[in-house]
Structures are given as structure tokens and as C-alpha cells.
From TrEMBL:
Protein name stated in the entry: Uncharacterized protein
Organism: Anopheles arabiensis
Top-level lineage group: Eukaryota
One Pfam family in the UniProt entry: DUF5641
């Protein structure tokens, strides 16, 4: 049995399923005495693997709806996918019946996208693949490309969870730099005041994201379960304190205080306002070379 949680990339997961399909086919042909079995994976097997994963994801989250459709019964109105008019295709894949079904110029997968739950690990890996394909670009680009083949409820919220913090967020306000057009006051004083407030709001937003996404990387963790490299004299650190952005002081470790286990428990740090003594867990090492 394949444990989906062990995979971090969609491509590796699909490859594993494709190899399982190939092995089953190979053993079947060998048992039947057929020596013409293909000895390598092909594109058809990869496509079959992707379909298999979609079916697994659907059975995990929409099992009741699938049973209703297999029994030729209408799914209940209380279902979260009732309004999508779902149906099972010839491969038992659940798809959405949209408004463009009669269009002769639209590919089948676009007319009837595969329905996937946003809660599925398989969906998470699939979204991650599209995110990487488009270099963590504009959220709408990822949404548009995914919806050419799949329908995922609350897709934008799922993609926002994937979006990486990039230099564009600090310089332009978003990963792509595209922002909604804002209406500014016409008089100079109001314009300057509004611009200042907007700048402060953006800085506060970046600060919160920095705390949430980057700080855990540089802060000491798992102190009871893994061996962690102690800070040392000469390290540049942030002194973690409560408060808003720009209140954390940066300093240089000048003296260490070790515990009975010979690990650093506290340190003296030279900051712009003088020497301070802080617990090691309140010091975030800045990854710089000096």
C-alpha cells in the first residue's frame, strides 16, 4: 500500500504509482507466458497513475456521493459538491458538468474538470506541482492553469497557503507586483498621510509574515529531541522581545553562560543600547558571514 504522506512531490508519487502499474502488468504477462511485455514506463502509464490518484482522493473525501452515483441515485442537496452537478466518467473519475459541455472546441478535461477536495494530501501535492511549474508566480496564473483540468473548492485559499515569501512582496506588495488600483485623495496632505499609512500597513504585514515564515527557521527548536548547535561568541543575533517590528535589537554575542550539561543557557549580547543578558532561547541567530 502506498503511503501518500511519505511523498513531498507530485512527480515522485505519480512515478511510484506508475511503476506499481507496470510491475502488475509485467507479472501478469509473465505468468501468461507473454514475452512481449514492455520493459520500460511510458506516458500512458503515467497518465493512468494520475487518474488512479484522483480516484483515491475522491473516494477518501466523497465516498458517500460516489456510492449514490453508482446506484444511479441523486446525491443529497446537503453535499458540498451538489451544485457542481458531478458525474462519473467511463474510468469512474468524478467530474463536474459545467456550462461549456456543448462546446466542440474545448478539450474534454476543460469542459468536465476532475473534482478534488481541498483537504486531500493528493490535491496539496498537485497544487504544489503547478506552483513550482510557474515559479511561485501570480496566484491567478496558477488558478487558471489548474482549472483547465481540475475543480478544487476554495482553490485560491489553498494556493495562498503555498505562496512563498519573495523579494517582490517587499518591493511591490505581491509575488507578481500586480495590485488593485487604489483611489487616493486629491489634496497633497491627505495623499501623503494615506501613502504613509499604506506603507506602514504593508510593513506590518511583511513583519507578521517574516515572524510566521522565516523566524521558525532561525530560532532554536526541538531542544529536548535533537542535538542543536549552540550559539557562540561572535555570533550576530536578534534579541527576541515582545512588541512591533523594528523593536528587536540586533547584537553581537560577547559572553556565554553554560549549564551543567555544558550547553549554552544564557548569553551576554552587545547591542546599540548596551549589554544585555538573555536566555539562549530568546536569541535568534542571523545567518550571515562576518
Amino acid at each position: 500500500m502506498v503511503v501518500i504522506e511519505r511523498f513531498s512531490r507530485w512527480e515522485k508519487l505519480v512515478g511510484s504509482i506508475a511503476r506499481i502499474h507496470w510491475l502488475i502488468k509485467y507479472l501478469k504477462h509473465k505468468f501468461q507466458g507473454n514475452i512481449k511485455c514492455e520493459d520500460a514506463l511510458n506516458q500512458e502509464q503515467y497518465v493512468k497513475a494520475e487518474i488512479t490518484l484522483c480516484i483515491w482522493a475522491q473516494k477518501e473525501h466523497y465516498e458517500a456521493e460516489i456510492k449514490q452515483m453508482l446506484s444511479l441515485k441523486q446525491i443529497p442537496r446537503s453535499s458540498t459538491i451538489y451544485k457542481l452537478c458531478p458525474f462519473l466518467d467511463e474510468q469512474s473519475v468524478m467530474r463536474m458538468r459545467g456550462r461549456i459541455g456543448a462546446s466542440p472546441y474545448v478539450p474534454y478535461g476543460t469542459k468536465y474538470p476532475i473534482i478534488l477536495s481541498q483537504k486531500s494530501r493528493i490535491t496539496f501535492l498537485l497544487v504544489d506541482k503547478f506552483h513550482r511549474r510557474y515559479k511561485h508566480g501570480n496566484r491567478e496564473t496558477v488558478v487558471n492553469e489548474l482549472r483547465q483540468q481540475y475543480y478544487v473548492p476554495k482553490l485560491r485559499a489553498l494556493i495562498a497557503h503555498h505562496e512563498a515569501l519573495t523579494p517582490n512582496h517587499f518591493l511591490l506588495g505581491s509575488s507578481s507586483g500586480i495590485k488593485q488600483i487604489e483611489v487616493h485623495p486629491t489634496d497633497i496632505k491627505s495623499t501623503l498621510r494615506s501613502s504613509w499609512k499604506l506603507a506602514q500597513h504593508l510593513l506590518d504585514s511583511f513583519w507578521r509574515r517574516w515572524l510566521r515564515e522565516y523566524l521558525p527557521v532561525i530560532t532554536r527548536q526541538d531542544k529536548w529531541f535533537t542535538n542543536i548547535k549552540d550559539i557562540k561568541e561572535g555570533d550576530v543575533v536578534f534579541v527576541i522581545e515582545s512588541g512591533n517590528r523594528n523593536t528587536w535589537r540586533r547584537g553581537l554575542v560577547t559572553k556565554l553562560i553554560k549549564g551543567k550539561d555544558d550547553h549554552v543557557r544564557q548569553a551576554w549580547v552587545k547591542t546599540s543600547t548596551g549589554l544585555v543578558r538573555r536566555p539562549a532561547v530568546k536569541l535568534a541567530l542571523i545567518d550571515v558571514q562576518h
